[in-house]
Amino acid sequence: MWVFSASGCRWLGAAGSLAVALGGWAAGTLPVRGGGGLWEPRGSALTVAGAVLAYLGLTLLVAAWWRYGVLLARGVRDGVLRTLVWWTAPLLLAPPLYSADVYSYIAQGGMVLEGHDVYGGGPSVLGPGELGADAAASVGGNWTDTPAPYGPVFLLLAEAVVGPTGGAIVPAVLGMRLIALGALALIVWAVRGLAGGAADRDGAVWLAALNPLLLIHVVGGMHNDGLMIGLMLGGVLLAARGRWVLGCVLVGLAMMVKSPAAVALLFIGVMIARRDGGGVRGVAKGLVLPGLVAGGVAVAATLAAGTGFGWLRTQSVAGAIHTALSVTSDLGLALGTLLADDPDPVKGVVQKLGLLVAVGLILALAWRAWKGRIDPVLGLGLSLVALVALSPMVQPWYLLWGTVVVAAVAWHSRAGQVLAVFSAALVYETAPSGHTPWYGFVLAGCVLALGLVWLRRDAWPPAASVAPADGLRADLREARSR
Fold first, then answer.
1. Pick from 401, 429, 427, 398: which is nearest to 16 by CA?
2. Which residues, 6 or more positions from 268, have their beta carbon under 8 angstroms from its beta carbon?
3. For the chain, first and last CA: distance in Å?
4. Cα-Cα-Cα-Cα dihedral sign, residues 135, 34, 157, 97
5. What is the pTM of this model?
């Protein structure tokens, strides 16, 4: 049937994306005030209808995406970038979807412009009439008094949006969406550069950028995780091509958006060490130089932003907020409830143990990459997946940290297929309004179960190779010939 063809998937996914956007006009994460008559609550009946339309559209998008990936895995060639344009376009003018975080971004940009300390207080410090005050009114309850956990580079971008728009909701949100589109472009450039032949580039874009989890949360929800991923992966690409200093600069900028990007420095260090033949001198260079370059970028960005070094103490604030997707937080809470009157100390210990295990896994993957047993880029992707799985706070879109990186070099592997299944499931966890209803977890669980059964019965054939990216592969050949 035509609908199961690549062309049919393109149309079906575009229809799904359009339904998500239209549903969002009634059931999206609408502002409390300042919607300018465009983004306003429409009444309970329309809100329910919009939510149903958005869920139906999301299901169409997921089905089209998965079928499209199966076709690519079977060797079908198609205009993946054209498909990306079709699926992205309907979301461009939609209100914020699946999260209220963009209001925090706008409010924090306003806080900087108004002279408030973004690392000392939350958006609630903004008074009436101050830039970003309308956005602050729409910030989710957990984040109203929470200091910014983001680096100064992102705050500079938020300032650049809030200043010209005066903090008005609609233009400020659309300004933040332009940044999200820039992040999407960076991701596409990086994954295509790291992938091998034309078929691998198409598959990499499919898992990384066409991924509904990325479309709804980076384009629709404008999460700054997309910018962190794009800068980080762009830095890895440059390092793989031998331009490691510039690559570390990009990773340093990514760190000054969100700190988990720092993991990439370890694997860039592995690349440097292997190019130097793996001796003591190469290992020393790999361990020290990436950190020095990225550290210099962090200091320069902090001084340029004028926001101070408060970001060093706010990196753990998000961990204080319990999310049901965090295995260590759930386990710690359960053990604490059973073993103590106050569960928080036990929960804190379990969370720290989880992070220690994650660090151990990251170091083990870096060791394997240094020994040549695994591609350093794949090692980075798996490290980020492990970090997310064992973090004290996990949001659905955090899975993208590792998924996009794995997509660049191993989309056709079993790891890529498993991450695709989890991506398809996690899109259902959050409602268009940004809330996490019980039925979202039920839907996600059903999709995950179906996906894992399908994966076992119809695993993709192994790719011809899961090898280091072209530039890195050439450097490794040169190092071995010395």
1. 427
2. 235, 236, 239, 244, 247, 248, 251, 286, 290, 376
3. 56
4. positive
5. 0.92
**∠ CA(299), CA(100), CA(418), 5° rounding?**
80
- Measured CA to CA, the distance from residue 248 to residue 297 in angstroms comes to 9
Angle in degrees, 0-180, between the axes of helices 343-370 and 376-389, rounded to the nearest 10: 170
> For 221, which DSSP code?
S
Average pLDDT over residues 159-184: 96
- Cβ atoms of residues 385 and 407 within 8 Å: no
Residue 100 in contact with residue 173, Cβ under 8 Å? no
Q: Are 199 and 81 in contact (CB under 8 A)?
A: no
Check: CB of residue 61 under 8 Å from CB of residue 84.
no
Angle at 96 between CA 61 and CA 444, to 5 degrees: 45
Q: Which residues of 170-206 are buried (b: 16+ CB within 10 A; e: fewer)?
A: bebbebbbebbbebbebbbebbbbbbbeebbbbbbbb
Tell how far CA 193 is from the center of its chain. 19
pLDDT tens digits, residue range 80-137? Answer: 999 999 999 999 999 999 999 999 999 999 999 999 999 999 999 998 889 999 999 9
SS (H, E, C) 233-256: HHHHHHHHCCCHHHHHHHHHHHHC
Are the CB atoms for 410 and 208 separated by under 8 Å? no
- What are 77's two structure tokens? 């060639």
Q: Where are the domains of the chain?
A: 2-325+395-458
Q: What is the pLDDT of residues 230-277, one digit of tens each?
A: 999 999 999 999 999 999 999 999 999 999 999 999 999 999 988 876
